[in-house]
Design a protein that fits this description.
Layout: H1 3-14, H2 18-31, E1 35-36, E2 48-53, E3 57-62, E4 72-78, E5 83-94, E6 97-105, E7 118-125, E8 131-136, H3 156-160, E9 174-178, H4 186-199, E10 209-215, E11 220-222, E12 228-231, H5 234-248, E13 256-262, H6 279-290, H7 296-304, E14 307-310, E15 314-315, E16 337-340, H8 356-368, E17 373-375, H9 390-394, E18 399-404, E19 406-407, E20 415-418, H10 419-432
Parallel strand pairs: 1-2, 4-13, 4-14, 14-18, 15-19, 16-17
Antiparallel strand pairs: 2-3, 3-13, 5-6, 5-10, 6-9, 7-8, 7-10, 11-12, 12-20, 16-18
């Protein structure tokens, strides 16, 4: 298998939260000669800098020889994934079992998360200003967590409900321990003692913690030929990682190149680390200040004249559910990188709808560089769909299109991609960085 696919599997196995992704991305960038933009008063062509936003989003820039106002070539992906978040007061005990109370994040099928090993990743922020990284339940010889379910013998009423109803959101709580001493609250207290010993935290520290429950275990090759990958968080880290590799290997930029990896896409791109914010505009303003001036018109022109690939995954055609897809306009595993002219749903609601001239330019550069690509929708017109970060970039007037890897079982705890498509994604993104 290629070095890219092997490195990708390692990356998604070790980085299951946006904070973990940003920390590893910065480490890889610095290893390849990139530096924090705060260390620069001025920037010149060839300089390579990064900018982190609250440790949960990151932008990497390679300064080009052309003026910034001529526009940039931007690869943009998101590094958050559907999961369960521990609530602010998560720990409770009920009839001898200790639980962590959760709130699901993003679009999930709740029933997929029960009775499987679950780990907790995140950070505890204490009042003294220190941040303590947390990883619980990953090691083979360690404990793990799980969500219980009803045995089929007594689940007659549960089975009458729809798939969206038979596992309520409030039932997605993690089994964490037992009260073995038949003393009320003793199991809960035992868990608190372990957390204090291991992380030096008190129960109040849950109030300022970000703890994410994710599938435990590593990503793996799938299939006898090892031609697929199965793992958690491939939406959208498969695009984020290949975008990262593309810019780290890029040289001699004419137009300034950017790899923008953001948070919160799965819940609408909200907040200070999501694309529905001034995150990109603020980052470009920092570049503008260090390459001439940060006057508003210069920044606006830089954004308007930019090209972007909204590097997000697309739904792969599922041969076992063909009634959901328009076969001629669906992406297939192993078919190469996917360009989706518009996402959204039912009448293109929430789409940005790329213009034909931009698509023609992309077709040429893909063909010139031997990139296998496919054009696709997500599903049949009335079945549904979903929006991405493209519409927030289009707000600036730039040319943008969705471009990503086809994923089978998207938003499930374990998603499936093609190794060939992963390689084509990187090849596509490298070619795009030289678009003029």
């Amino acid at each position: 298998m290629s070095d890219t696919v092997n490195s990708y599997i390692k990356f998604i196995s070790e980085n299951k939260t946006e904070r973990e992704c940003v920390k590893s991305i910065i480490a890889l960038a610095e290893k390849n000669g990139w530096r924090d933009i705060e260390n620069f008063e001025t920037l010149s062509p060839g300089d390579k800098v990064y900018l982190s936003v609250y440790g949960k989003a990151v932008a990497l820039f390679e300064i080009g020889t052309e003026p910034l106002e001529n526009g940039m070539n931007i690869l943009c992906a998101h590094i958050d994934s559907p999961r369960l978040d521990l609530k602010m007061k998560p720990l409770y005990e009920k009839n001898g079992i200790v639980y962590f109370n959760t709130h699901y994040y993003g679009g999930i099928k709740k029933y997929q998360w029960v009775t499987m090993p679950i780990a907790i990743h995140g950070v505890i922020s204490r009042k003294d200003g220190s941040n303590i990284p947390v990883v619980m339940g990953e090691d083979d010889d360690e404990y793990t967590f799980a969500i219980s379910d009803i045995l089929p013998h007594i689940a007659q009423e549960q089975m009458k409900k729809t798939a969206g109803e038979f596992i309520p959101g409030e039932a997605l709580d993690l089994v964490t321990g037992l009260n073995r001493e038949d003393k009320k609250g003793e199991g809960r207290n035992a868990v608190l003692r372990i957390l204090e010993e291991k992380y030096g935290m008190s129960e109040d520290d849950f109030l300022s913690a970000e703890l994410e429950a994710v599938p435990a275990g590593k990503a793996k090759y799938l299939g006898l030929r090892k031609d697929m990958v199965i793992g958690y968080g491939q939406d959208d880290r498969v695009c984020a990682y290949t975008s990262l590799e593309a810019i780290l290997e890029h040289r001699n930029a004419k137009r300034t190149c950017c790899c923008l990896l953001v948070d919160k896409e799965e819940i609408g791109s909200v907040g200070a680390t999501g694309m529905d914010s001034l995150l990109l505009e603020n980052a470009v303003s920092e570049l503008a200040l260090r390459t001439g001036s940060a006057e508003t018109l210069r920044v606006r022109r830089a954004l308007k004249n930019s090209y972007m690939l909204s590097s997000d995954v697309n739904s792969a055609l599922d041969p076992l559910n063909m009634d959901l897809y328009d076969e001629d306009n669906s992406s297939k595993l192993g078919g190469g990188i996917v360009f989706n002219k518009y996402t959204g749903s039912r009448g293109k609601s929430g789409a940005s709808d790329a213009n034909a001239e931009y698509i023609a330019k992309l077709r040429k550069i893909m063909d010139d560089n031997g990139v296998t690509f496919q054009m696709a929708d997500m599903a049949k017109v009335d079945v549904g769909g979903g929006g991405t970060i493209a519409k927030y970039a289009a707000w600036y007037g730039m040319s943008v299109i969705d471009s990503g890897v086809a994923v089978l079982s998207m938003h499930a705890p374990y998603e499936i991609t093609s190794t060939y498509d992963i390689e084509m994604a990187k090849k596509c993104y490298k070619a795009f960085l030289d678009i003029e």
